[in-house]
């Protein structure tokens, strides 16, 4: 592999300075914020994912960076330069589209060479760079194929190569894997991450698939209704969500209501005791909670253990063997709690109707 | 909440794209000058006279009996032609889509739908007179009727129906194919007879489409100039009345006012058709057929239906064939043998045929690439780009579809004969070949744009966006991505314009000057004089040219059309 040759000139940072986009609702005719006051600073060379349900403004944000849409408020900076007034062809970005958007009248080589020809790169250099980049995406030998002779995964690679070859300051991905089947999707996201790391390029990636976002990104920006709900590393977002929405969107989640019973500091953080009708539990938190304040414990299904003896008594309502884990639904008071108990082969399996206990360690839970 | 800075930013981005800006400005200028302005001047002309603004001219024309009769004549013809064409078109479409038929029958249908496209508009009138007129081959020599009068109402109705029903057939065929057969099968399954299925499922689904086909034909019939001119006799329609008002009575204000009336009628129908029926059709028939339809094989149904349609098709084909044959007889109606080429010789030796064909050919040839390119640019801007004046460009180029040729012709006379707004500015344009070319372009622009728009809608918007994103400017995006992808549409626009231009007459006949001899105008003249043999000879050569052009296009598309390479593998 000739990665040294294809090393990107200089990755650029992207700054969104309080960006908003207003659209007109086609039904009511009223204006609304499709994107509202998004303020981000994306470091050069990092991989950032805009994650959220459909209609949350993630694609609009991406298209504003590419220049297809103009922001109604705020300024976008690319490598420190304001770019609001630049047309898409003048911006140092390259986008990989959801539909790949390959040129059907060109073969693979011409597709990839398109951007280089526009930049008037000498012929022999085009040949060298296209060959290198096709090697990087593992499409050597496919140069003369027409794009509709390629499989979905190969088309995806061509789209990626076409964007990479122009060495953009930032690479934009608009749900690039949503047209692939599940297995290929997993393979391609590893591939994209590998190439991004190898080239050290800045990448902004839009997806609605939380597992994709977690596996690929340095940072996740979770959006809802045009607003940034939370940003952080995949780990932060998963284990320390700042709202029920974030907790639920990023993965399967249980919520248990309770009352704080005071916090004590421990190693820079706090251990907060939470009182519930069924018993008392401890949770590690970032801030102290006043005694008596209402709170909600966020618990991932795999963080809970189900035993004969433990913290909170409950009743099994569903017990289902799933292969790699046993799936339980138990009732704690009025609340349904989902549990995934991994590797059930050497554990006791409970039946529907069994009276059991659940427990979890304080650092596996999170308090809202 | 007011829109923020995006409009301003979009404007700045547009300004930063000089090619795009220039294109838009040029387009707007062209559309305003050659579509909007001539129509506006008609309105001004008919309202603004020696004593300022008044409705005097309108009052005057409505007091003319000939005009009132012409309006009622036009509507009567349009209504009946619209109804008949829709019904016959429906019959043919139904048989094609629902009934198992022989390959030959299918071939006949194809020929019938093709003929009106490649033939000049008045060919059917010619053969109608030659077959069924006073000295008609069939009326006099087969049936022995000596005083058959084909001129007038029924003549126009029959000829127009034969000309326009293939349009309905093609439209309805497309719609019927989009009806999901499982809906009809569900009805059958619940116990409905075939007839019941047709009346309760197929027909209601098709109803907006039928209305659409009816109005399209209605508009075509009203706007038709050539057929009423030749076979109308003393039965005048609006289009011919306007023509006579300007060429015979030299009443330009009156003609302008009449043109405004005609335009209002077609425009009103067009608006209903375009913005109500077309949408409704799309709403009821969007689904794609999930699988092939079980064709009707019951012989008691298939035989009568295919027989009826085949006979009809044969009749229409015979009407067309009559024209080249007519040109071979020594004297039509009196002397049939020996067959002779003397008329064809005379076309070139006595009647300046060479010049006529050269003029028509060259002017049409110049108009076609301009139109094809222009319509592709317009459709690209409409479908793929966003800018302020987009609505204007779209509206005007579609509006042109509803403007009858005669109206446009009068508008050009009034608008350009004495220069813009009679100032003398640009008056040198009038009477030149250039203005004829412009008329050709304007007349074919709507069809080209429509085909371009539908071709572009099939193409994912992100393909162009990705080229733009890679650094291509607007011109580069258009030439390297858009145009290659809609090559077929471009090529067919090229030929359609050529065929439409070389066979055009309605607007041209008002604008042509003696320095240009056009074939259609010649044919019209000879037919008026009763010199049918020579008219037929001209028409035959014209049909050969247009047919040759269509053949050439098909060959062209076969070899250079949309990436043959990409299609091969599928």
Largest sheet descriptor of chain B = 2 strands, antiparallel
CATH homologous superfamily of the largest domain in chain A?
P-loop containing nucleotide triphosphate hydrolases
Query: Mean of residue pLDDT of chain B?
Result: 84
**Estimated share of beta-strand residues of chain B:** under 5%
Architecture per CATH nomenclature, i.e. the level-2 architecture of the largest domain in chain B:
Orthogonal Bundle
The count of strands of chain B amounts to: 2
Runs of chain B in which pLDDT lies below 50 for 5 or more consecutive residues are 563-570
Summed up, the helix count of chain A is 8
Integer-rounded radius of gyration of chain B: 25 Å
| Order of helical and strand elements of chain A | EEEHEEEHHHEHEHEEHHEEEEEEEEEE
| Main sheet strand line-up of chain A | 6-7-8-3-9-10
Average pLDDT of chain A: 86
Give the strand order of the largest sheet of chain B, numbering strands 1, 2, ... along the chain: 1-2
Q: What's the N-to-C terminus distance of chain B?
A: 50 Å
Total number of domains of chain A? 2
**What is the 3D shape of chain B?**
globular
Helix and strand composition category of chain A? alpha+beta
Q: In CATH's first tier, which class of the largest domain in chain B applies?
A: Mainly Alpha
| CATH fold topology of the largest domain in chain B | MetI-like fold
Helix content of chain A: 10-25%
Q: What's the story with the biggest beta sheet of chain A?
A: 6 strands, mixed
């Amino acid at each position: 592999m000739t990665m040294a040759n294809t090393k990107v000139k200089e990755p650029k940072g992207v700054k969104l300075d309080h960006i908003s986009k207003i659209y007109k609702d086609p039904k009511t005719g009223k204006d609304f914020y499709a994107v509202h006051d998004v303020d981000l600073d994306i470091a050069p060379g990092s991989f950032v994912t805009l994650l959220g349900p459909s209609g949350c403004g993630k694609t609009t944000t991406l298209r504003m960076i590419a220049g297809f849409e103009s922001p109604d408020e705020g300024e976008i900076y690319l490598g420190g330069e304001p770019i609001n007034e630049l047309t898409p062809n003048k911006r140092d970005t390259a986008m990989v589209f959801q539909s790949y958007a390959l040129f059907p009248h060109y073969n693979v080589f011409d597709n990839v060479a398109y951007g280089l020809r526009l930049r008037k790169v000498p012929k022999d250099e085009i040949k060298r760079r296209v060959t290198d980049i096709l090697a990087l995406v593992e499409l050597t030998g496919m140069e003369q194929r027409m794009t509709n002779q390629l499989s979905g995964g190969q088309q995806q690679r061509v789209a990626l190569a076409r964007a990479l070859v122009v060495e953009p300051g930032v690479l934009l991905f608009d749900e690039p894997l949503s047209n692939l089947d599940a297995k290929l999707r997993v393979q391609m996201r590893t591939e994209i991450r590998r190439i991004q790391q190898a080239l050290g390029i800045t990448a902004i990636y839009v997806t609605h698939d939380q597992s994709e976002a977690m596996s690929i990104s340095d940072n996740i920006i979770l959006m809802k209704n045009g607003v940034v709900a939370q940003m952080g590393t995949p780990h932060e977002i998963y284990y320390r969500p700042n709202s029920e929405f974030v907790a639920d969107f990023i993965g399967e989640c249980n919520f248990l209501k309770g009352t704080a019973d005071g916090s004590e500091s421990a190693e820079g953080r706090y251990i907060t005791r939470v009182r519930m009708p069924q018993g008392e539990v401890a949770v590690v938190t970032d801030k102290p909670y006043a005694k008596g304040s209402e709170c909600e414990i966020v618990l991932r299904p795999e963080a809970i253990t189900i035993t004969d003896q433990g913290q909170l008594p409950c009743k099994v309502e569903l017990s289902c063997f799933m292969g790699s884990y046993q799936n339980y639904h138990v009732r704690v008071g009025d609340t349904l709690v989902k549990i995934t108990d991994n590797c059930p082969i050497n554990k006791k399996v409970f039946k529907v109707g069994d009276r059991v206990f659940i427990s979890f360690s304080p650092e596996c839970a999170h308090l809202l | 909440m007011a829109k923020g800075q995006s409009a301003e930013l979009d404007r700045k981005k547009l300004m930063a794209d000089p090619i795009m800006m220039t294109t838009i400005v040029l387009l707007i200028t062209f559309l305003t000058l050659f579509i909007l302005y001539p129509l506006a001047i008609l309105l001004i002309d008919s309202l603004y006279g020696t004593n300022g603004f008044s409705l005097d001219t309108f009052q005057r024309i409505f007091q003319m009996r000939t005009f009132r009769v012409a309006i009622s004549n036009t509507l009567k013809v349009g209504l009946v032609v619209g109804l008949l064409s829709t019904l016959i078109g429906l019959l043919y479409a139904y048989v094609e889509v629902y009934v198992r038929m022989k390959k030959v029958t299918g071939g006949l249908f194809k020929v019938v739908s093709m003929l009106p496209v490649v033939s000049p508009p008045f060919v059917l009138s010619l053969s109608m007179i030659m077959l069924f007129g006073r000295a008609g081959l069939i009326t006099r020599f087969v049936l022995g009727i000596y005083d058959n009068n084909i001129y007038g109402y029924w003549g126009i109705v029959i000829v127009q129906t034969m000309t326009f029903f293939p349009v309905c057939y093609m439209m309805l065929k497309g719609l019927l194919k989009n009806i999901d057969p499982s809906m009809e099968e569900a009805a059958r399954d619940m116990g409905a007879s075939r007839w019941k299925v047709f009346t309760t499922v197929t027909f209601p689904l098709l109803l907006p489409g039928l209305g659409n086909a009816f109005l399209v034909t209605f508009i075509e019939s009203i706007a038709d100039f050539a057929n009423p001119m030749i076979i109308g006799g003393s039965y005048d329609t609006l289009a011919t009345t306007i023509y006579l008002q300007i060429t015979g009575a030299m009443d330009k204000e009156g003609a302008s006012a009449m043109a405004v009336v005609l335009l209002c009628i077609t425009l009103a129908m067009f608006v209903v058709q375009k913005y109500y029926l077309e949408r409704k059709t799309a709403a009821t028939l969007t689904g794609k057929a999930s699988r092939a339809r079980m064709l009707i094989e019951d012989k008691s149904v298939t035989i009568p239906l295919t027989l009826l349609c085949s006979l009809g098709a044969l009749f229409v084909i015979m009407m067309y064939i009559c024209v080249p044959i007519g040109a071979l007889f020594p004297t039509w109606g009196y002397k049939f043998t020996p067959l002779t080429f003397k008329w064809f010789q005379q076309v070139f030796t006595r009647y300046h045929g060479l010049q006529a064909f050269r003029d028509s050919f060259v002017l049409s040839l110049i108009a076609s690439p301009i139109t094809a390119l222009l319509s592709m640019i317009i459709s690209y801007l409409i479908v793929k780009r966003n800018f302020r004046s987009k609505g204007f460009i779209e509206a005007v180029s579609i509006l042109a579809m509803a403007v009858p040729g005669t109206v446009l012709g009068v508008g050009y006379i009034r608008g350009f004969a004495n220069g813009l707004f009679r100032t003398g500015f640009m008056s040198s344009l009038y009477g030149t070949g250039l203005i004829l070319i412009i008329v050709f372009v304007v007349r074919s622009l709507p069809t080209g744009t429509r085909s371009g728009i539908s071709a572009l809608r099939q193409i994912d918007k992100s393909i162009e966006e990705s080229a733009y994103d890679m650094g291509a400017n607007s011109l580069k995006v258009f030439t390297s991505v858009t145009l290659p992808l809609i090559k077929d549409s471009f090529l067919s626009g090229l030929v359609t314009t050529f065929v439409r231009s070389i066979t055009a007459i309605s607007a041209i006949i008002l604008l042509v000057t003696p320095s240009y001899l056009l074939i259609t105008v010649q044919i019209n003249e000879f037919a008026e004089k009763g010199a049918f043999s020579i008219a037929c000879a001209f028409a035959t050569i014209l049909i050969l040219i247009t047919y040759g052009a269509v053949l050439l296009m098909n060959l062209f598309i076969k070899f250079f059309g949309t990436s043959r390479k990409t299609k091969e593998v599928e």
